[in-house]
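Notes, Module 5: Reading structure tokens.

Key idea: the token line is not a picture. It is a compressed description, and you learn to read it the same way you learned to read a sequence, by spotting repeated patterns. We will look at two proteins. The first is printed below with its tokens.
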Amino acid sequence: MNKYEMLTIYSATLTDEQKDAIVDKYQKLMEKNGGKVESVNRANPWGLKKLAYPINYKSEGYYVLYNFEATAETAKNVVDLMRIDEKVLRTMCLRKN
């Protein structure tokens, strides 16, 4: 199992309940597929930030940082599911050394 860091930008139009639900959804998905979520930056969130350039005609996004341990296949599956979710503007997953 490898350690990963994934930064995800969610749509700024989501309510607080929807933000919590989508963060929980992907956290549970990682754990369900054999991964172990070490941290999600809920205690010290990056929160709502202005984007450098518009993405899907949106100029702000809600940033969430996940640190988790999983197989390469699990990480790829989570990223693939995020890419087709219309609530997710961008995601980038990096393997840590």
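Here is the second protein, with the sequence above and the tokens below, as before.
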Amino acid sequence: MRRTYRGSCHCGAVTFEADLDLTQPSYRCNCSICRRTRFWPAVAMPAAFRLLGGEDDLVEYLFHSRRNKHYFCRHCGVRPFGIGTDTPVGVMYGVNIGCLEDVPEETLAAIPITHVDGLHDRFASPQYTAHL
């Protein structure tokens, strides 16, 4: 069931809200940036994501193919969301589930996870997933 969640970076400089259905799959990826930052996104389409504050506190990082935009808070370094520009569903926001506020532990534990082999640029499960 879709509902509106509020979220922020660790220091609170960047705030957002997103309409998400946390019963739908989230993603764990083994690409170099997701693996290093332990990024765990839920998908929000552009109309379902709203940056409420801190736009000037965000730093954009592009790497490799420069297809996806990774945003970090310039103060605390947390990555609250990113924008996928070349995905199977088109442009979408990857909302960091760890940045959502007031989500009970039992809800977090029940979120389905789809593993993605970003290391090899494939939308399929990699051979090893336990570390993701």
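Summary for the second protein:
- Strands lie at 3-8, 15-20, 26-29, 41-44, 49-53, 58-61, 69-73, 81-84, 92-96, 113-116.
- The first helix runs from residue 32 to 37.
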